[in-house]
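Ops channel
N.P.: pipeline sanity check, posting one input/output pair.
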């Protein structure tokens, strides 16, 4: 059964608060028991902060911004001592800057007016739970038949008649893009065609299966979807083990080596459901000191983009610009403060999120440009630095915008990329005239992996090789020349996102399985067009889970036939794989030590 995370698994942010508070109570509480005047406030704060900087409890703090956050916590405690307030968790606002507390809202300097006030909430430990994986399964399982699921980001899954293809209820407009091209003339039935092998990646063992996105701390919440996950960018040539996940009202930061939920941000709006997140490493300057910090952008159902500093999970800005929910976010790989956001309002906005000032938690952000996706909405975004192009996998087709000259970027797409069907897709009845590109990932050397809903294969194509030499006005239709097909599986649900890190491609399905493809060697060979079908490097099956040690009452988890993997990712050193599911679980797999030999 699910085991509640014990006291040793509390968040690092909350632990910092407790340590600072304890320091005050031991050394200063009696001395200032009667309070002090406003004139003495700065002197008392400086005295307290100086004692903290010399304490071994905080010896691991190295970044200037983290010291600024520590001073904010100290300021809050000193302010409460001045008012002779009780030190209770209920009236402690974790990491809230003094200026924000005094105004009871979060303030932002921006070019688009004030943002909607919102403050992170501290949630208890009772809804942070883990399951213990038993012996992992191996081989191929034969799943039981079940009805297709009708699943939308803004709706609850409902059943549809057996055997009927699943359709999205989101987009009901009559306008359609160009029809899909004729399937490959030289491609035989892909079911019977022999597949080639990709390099092995070794074995991975299930390590932690964590429930940390529950609504109302409900241990039986099987409905909240964990939509996205991404590892924190590497720092100083060390691969990151910290994973960010989003779903429901929550954004979590998890240590994948220990399974500890380090921090958690809970949005104040009950209507929020976070669908997208993206990391970036941005430069900062504080006084004479310069460095780099990581920030996290999240967005979802409410249509706002929220910027979070992960050291204390402080939400320091809310950006407004879309008129419907946001389904995807992407930071520009060469411009770390530039953020793309795709929404159901059929717009892609490019923002400059600015560099935050962590002394007062403000930032200057602005909207740089708005791109039109015309008759559809973007589901996934990738940016090719080689071709200087933004690619959007959409509800209807796949589009690209040239960014060679940033001053003359077209609002309308320059290209519509038509992803071909396979013979087996057509024969199975799972091929539509217009593809729903619900999975998109950038691989090395300008290769792109595209997954169309309902297809039993993923398409690998080279962007550079598919771009026409002559530049024309308007949107040019490009029939994609396929470099290879990847063996996959037919799914009965959509919005299953792909992950790609250092040539390793990851994809989940609707049976709880993970497909891993080691594409590094393939992308180093130039293949402009091919009928080759590549089998996956390995397939991780859903393990048996032990929930017998739960500290709270919890029902049995669904079997693998009801597990949808919404998104997955791997660490930079390819030793950790993580995914988020439709039944409110974050799953972490570790590379077996034997595989390193």
């Amino acid at each position: 059964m699910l085991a509640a995370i014990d006291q040793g698994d509390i968040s690092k942010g909350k632990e910092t608060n407790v340590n600072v508070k304890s320091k005050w109570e031991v050394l200063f509480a009696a001395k200032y028991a009667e309070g002090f005047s406003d004139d003495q406030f700065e002197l008392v704060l400086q005295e307290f902060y100086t004692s903290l900087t010399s304490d071994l409890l905080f010896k691991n703090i190295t970044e200037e911004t983290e010291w600024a956050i520590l001073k904010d916590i100290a300021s809050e405690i000193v302010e409460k001592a001045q008012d002779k307030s009780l030190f209770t968790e209920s009236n402690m606002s974790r990491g809230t800057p003094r200026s924000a507390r005094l105004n009871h809202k979060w303030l932002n300097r921006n070019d688009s007016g004030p943002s909607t006030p919102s403050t992170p909430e501290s949630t208890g430990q009772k809804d942070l739970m883990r399951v213990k994986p038993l012996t992992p399964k191996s081989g191929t399982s034969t799943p039981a038949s079940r009805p297709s699921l009708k699943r939308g980001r803004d709706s609850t899954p409902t059943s549809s008649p057996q055997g009927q293809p699943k359709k999205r209820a989101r987009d009901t407009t009559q306008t359609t893009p160009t029809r899909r091209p004729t399937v490959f003339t030289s491609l035989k039935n892909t079911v019977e065609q022999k597949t080639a092998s990709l390099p092995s990646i070794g074995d991975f063992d299930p390590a932690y299966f964590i429930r940390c996105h529950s609504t109302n701390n409900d241990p039986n919440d099987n409905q909240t979807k964990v939509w996205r996950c991404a590892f924190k960018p590497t720092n100083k040539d060390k691969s990151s083990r910290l994973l960010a996940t989003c779903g429901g009202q929550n954004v979590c930061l998890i240590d994948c080596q220990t399974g500890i939920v380090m921090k958690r941000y809970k949005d104040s709006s009950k209507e929020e459901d976070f669908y997208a997140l993206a990391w970036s490493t941005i430069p900062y300057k504080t006084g004479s000191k310069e460095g780099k910090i990581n920030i996290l952008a999240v967005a979802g159902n409410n249509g706002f983009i929220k910027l979070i500093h992960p050291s204390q999970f402080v939400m320091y800005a809310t950006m407004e610009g879309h008129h419907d929910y946001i389904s995807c976010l992407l930071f520009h790989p060469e411009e770390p403060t530039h953020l793309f956001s795709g929404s159901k309002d059929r717009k892609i906005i490019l923002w400059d999120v600015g560099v935050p000032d962590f002394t007062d938690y403000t930032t200057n952000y602005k909207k740089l440009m708005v791109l039109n996706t015309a008759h559809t909405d973007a589901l996934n975004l990738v940016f090719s630095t080689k071709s200087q192009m933004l690619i959007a996998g959409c509800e209807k087709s796949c589009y690209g915008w040239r960014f060679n000259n940033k001053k003359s970027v077209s609002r309308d797409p320059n290209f519509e990329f038509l992803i071909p069907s396979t013979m087996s897709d057509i024969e199975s009845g799972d091929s539509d005239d217009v593809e729903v590109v619900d999975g998109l990932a950038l691989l090395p050397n300008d290769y792109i992996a595209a997954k169309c809903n309902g297809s039993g294969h993923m398409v690998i194509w080279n962007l550079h090789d598919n771009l026409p030499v002559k530049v024309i006005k308007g949107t040019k239709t490009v029939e994609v020349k396929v470099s290879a097909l990847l063996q996959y599986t037919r799914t009965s649900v959509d919005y299953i996102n792909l992950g790609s890190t250092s040539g390793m491609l990851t994809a989940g399905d609707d049976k709880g399985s993970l497909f891993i493809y080691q594409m590094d060697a393939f992308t180093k060979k130039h293949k402009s067009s091919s009928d080759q079908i590549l089998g996956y490097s390995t397939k991780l099956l859903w393990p048996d889970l032990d929930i017998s040690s739960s500290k709270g009452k919890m029902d049995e988890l669904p079997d693998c036939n009801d597990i949808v993997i919404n998104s997955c990712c791997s660490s930079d050193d390819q030793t950790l794989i993580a995914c988020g599911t439709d039944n409110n679980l974050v799953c972490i797999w570790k590379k077996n030590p034997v595989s390193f030999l």
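N.P.: looks fine end to end. Residues 14-56+67-83 form one domain.
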